[in-house]
Amino acid sequence: MTEYRLPDHLREAQHYINGTTTASTGSGTIPVLDPATAQQITTTAAGTTADLDTAVEAAHDAFRSGVWSRLSGRERSRVLIRVAQLFREHAEEIAQVESLDVGKPISLARAVDVNTAADTYEYAASLAQNLDGAVRRVPLPAHAYTQREPLGVVAAITPFNFPLILSTSKIAIALAAGNTVVHKPAEDTPLSALLTARLLSEAGVPDGVYNVVTGYGSDLGDHLTAHPRVAKVAFTGSTQTGAHVAAVAGQALRPVTAELGGNAANIIFADADLPKAVETTISAFVFNTGQFCMGGPRLLVERPVYEHVLEALAGAVPHVPFGDPRDPGTVIGPLANRRQLEKVAAAVEQARAAGARVVTGGEPAEINGGFFYRPTVLADVANSAEAVQQEIFGPVLTVQPFDTEQEAVELANSTDYGLAAGIQTGSISRAHRVADALEAGIIWVNAWGMLDPAMPFGGVKSSGWGRENGPEQMEAYTRTKSVIIAIDPAPEDQTPDAEDAS
Ligand code: NAD
């Protein structure tokens, strides 16, 4: 394997608070493992609630000082554009760190993670410049207008699978709006947050505006979510944790955006371009080693082409480059941690016991002691099976046949989740009809995974509340203030009537 050495500051096991690395008040640390070898690469601080208090206080003071919140949108925009430039200048270092931390194929980290983060800062910069209100013509003796204001301290809590992108999708818009941030990254994959802190500072984001406290969600989550100085909670993670976070935030009357689990259906109709549909299906379920909330782990295939598609998958999937994430040719790497590996293995065993046919894969792979699971296709899986109804979050595809368009829609909508869905068809009318009927926040037609900071994403049902990206996201990071200024009637002697009479 090609060795990459972490920069020294990522070996310090410290938080980043008020513009500087800060030791934890506790002595606990969390090992950070390289998922490709299960070897420890560094440790981070297991933060305490006292650490969180310091970070929230710093963020609150920075907000109140106006050093960021009172800048014009254009000034904030300039800084965010500089952040994007720095991400591009440091692209290789960021990609290497993200790949090492998550076990993500380096080609993916280079092409997707770093570029998406930079694009997201640039897009947020454009929104910062357009934070205007509206004049309302109301039937009152008044001039009435609205203005948008930042909320205050945003608590960002993020998951392990796309640490950089899913942090950026909160930080960039929060900062664009003039908020300050306390970020608790996932315990397994905290490194890109610590890199981000340095780059934001270098770009000119003032001290205290972005703070990182590393640690276990179980130790820190409730304290951060219900902290009296936190104005909003931005959470991405599992449905189970999200429901808990929403309950705690609700009790404390904090607004929450919650981007939660997904279990998307990908529907292949017999009229699709089948070779392309199979290629799309593979990339939809192996992208990021299946640890993609908007991945396509449930394949529904119209019965006349069901066996043909299974044969094509059986032929192609074992040849998708699988192994060392540092090899630029690798498409599928290890899972991000042992917990994921065990979860995926258990889900496949359960499906097999429930009668699923293993078309390919179906077992872990012994590669350098890392958390590898072979890309797996399971056919004839009952719709009620846990492998279909629950999110597996690994490189596993379940395949089910259907006979009619209506049945396909019913199967696609039959889980509690609703984050994404895909339609592979040659009929434009069918694409519109089915897209309209699917219960999901984003639908791809003859494609999978195309995203852009300008296009909102988010869930329906148990996949969450709120939207990230697009202009819509600004709603969740600002509040509207109405200003109504009375206009006195003209003095009697100056009214036109009074003038006429004289
Ligand atoms: P997770 O819910 O286990 O953890 C997410 C974050 O929550 C981590 O930072 C964790 O430390 C923290 N946390 C844990 N307990 C907490 C508590 N009591 N209070 C507050 N925070 C707490 O999720 P994960 O395993 O890291 O991520 C995988 C999940 O995230 C999958 O379900 C995936 O679908 C989902 N996800 C959703 C999206 C989306 O945009 N909808 C994107 C990526 C991942």
Question: How would you describe this protein?
Answer:
The protein has 502 residues and is of the alpha/beta class. Helices cover 38% and strands 20% of the residues. The protein has 16 helices and 22 strands. The strands form six sheets. A seven-stranded mixed sheet has the order 14-17-18-13-12-19-20, with helices on both faces. Strand 3 and strand 4 (39-45) form a beta hairpin. Helix 2 (73-89) packs across helix 6 (191-203), helix 3 (91-102) packs across helix 4 and helix 4 runs parallel beside helix 5. The chain is globular, with a radius of gyration of 25 Å. The structure holds nicotinamide-adenine-dinucleotide. Nicotinamide-adenine-dinucleotide binds next to helix 7 and helix 8. It is an enzyme of class 1 (oxidoreductase). GO terms for molecular function: oxidoreductase activity. Residues 26-483 form the Aldehyde dehydrogenase domain.
Question: Which characteristics define this entry?
Answer:
6-stranded mixed sheet; 22 strands; globular; 7-stranded mixed sheet; binds nicotinamide-adenine-dinucleotide; 16 helices; alpha/beta
